[in-house]
Amino acid sequence: MKRMLLLGLALAPVALFASEGAVETDIVQRTVNFIIFAAILWYLIADKIKAFFANRTLSIQAELDKVQETLKASQDKVTDAQKKLEEARKLAAEIIEGAKADIDSVKQKVTTAIDADITNLNKNLEEMIKIETSKAKKQVVAEVLEELLSSENIKLTQQELVDVVLKKVA
């Protein structure tokens, strides 16, 4: 800044003496005036401009830092969400495996219960067949005895009667 001021002061006499030439042009005077004006303007507002641009730089830097923090937070959230997703997938796989194991155990229990029920039903059927067979035998014996005893034409001894009943039953 001081260089410009010194340059402006050094060129001021040149501008004054330059007007003595044969051709009158005022470009040199205008240039010197502009340089002086720019130097004075720079001297008056240079600190304010520097402060403005420094503050602007700081505000841009702060905004950039804020955006970077937001980006970092977003990336952390994405990472956390991915971890949670992976954990959820593992948990889902474990639940599925547990469900499959439960299904297998339930199938096994149901199969065992059905086999036991079938065995019980077969035993009950055999017992019912025995009971019905003995009832039928008793009924046949009762009918045969009824016939024989009601018939007057047939005269049988006790031993013959027992033999007939045994033949019918067998």
Give an overview in words.
It is a single chain. The chain is mostly helical and 170 residues long. It contains 3 helices and no strands. The termini are far apart. The chain has helices at 2-18, 27-150, 158-169.
Question: Which SSEs are present, and which pair or pack?
Answer:
Blueprint lengths: L1 H17 L8 H124 L7 H12 L1
Defining key terms:
90% helix, 0% strand, mainly alpha, 3 helices, 170 residues
Number of strands: 0
Straight-line N-to-C gap: 142 Å
Q: Which range best describes the helical content: under 10%, 10-25%, 25-40%, 40-55%, 55-70% or over 70%?
A: over 70%
Mean pLDDT: 84
Strand content: under 5%
Biggest sheet layout: none
**Integer-rounded radius of gyration:** 62 Å
Per the principal axes of the C-alpha atoms, what is the gross shape? rod-shaped
Low-pLDDT residue spans: none
**DSSP helical segment count:** 3
Structure classification: mainly alpha
Spell the H/E element sequence.
Answer: HHH
In short:
With 170 residues, the chain is mostly helical. Helix content is 90%, strand content 0%.
